Amino acid sequence: MVDGVTHRAAVYPGTFDPLTNGHIDLIQRATRLVDRLVIGVAVNEAKGPLFSLEERVQMVEAETRSIAAQSGVVIDVVPFRGLLVQFARGVGASIVLRGLRAVTDFDYEFQMAGMNHRLDPEIELVFLMASDGNHFISSRLVKEIARLGGDISSLVPKMVLERTLARTGTVEAKGS
């Protein structure tokens, strides 16, 4: 509590490889719930990232700058490795924000929520359902479609589109 006002901080973790419009939607909606949002960009070599950690952090920072300015919420983009609850504790967050797209997400997230609660019962998990039009978007599918020459222009922000197409060696999609 600062000056009699409770400040709520949340962590929104992910690999963001690449950042999608679904991620942006959750970030925008999260700013209505918290005073500070820490976007934790996870190190996860096992997923075979398209972009380096530094590139992912830079893209998330660039794409969230205007959201922070419009909402008045502090948005920090921080790389992390290790346990999510330790990261959340380390950045002063008492909330972990996760997005849900489908039943398969729920099954995985339910297991993770139980384990994270066991590791640190003081950290609350908040799920936001994907908005209409975003429930099918995943970074994995975006990468696959881009590699195969499909149109991802409606799935990612413009800067991310350009970088993804350049990285995958595909031509710019029609209509973008």
UniProtKB/TrEMBL annotation:
Enzyme class: transferase
Residues flagged as site, Transition state stabilizer: H23
Catalysed reaction, written as an equation: (R)-4'-phosphopantetheine + ATP + H(+) = 3'-dephospho-CoA + diphosphate
GO MF term list: pantetheine-phosphate adenylyltransferase activity
Binding site for substrate: T15, K47, L84, R98
Cell compartments where the protein resides: Cytoplasm
Family note: Belongs to the bacterial CoaD family.
Name of the protein in its database record: Phosphopantetheine adenylyltransferase
Gene name for this UniProt entry: coaD
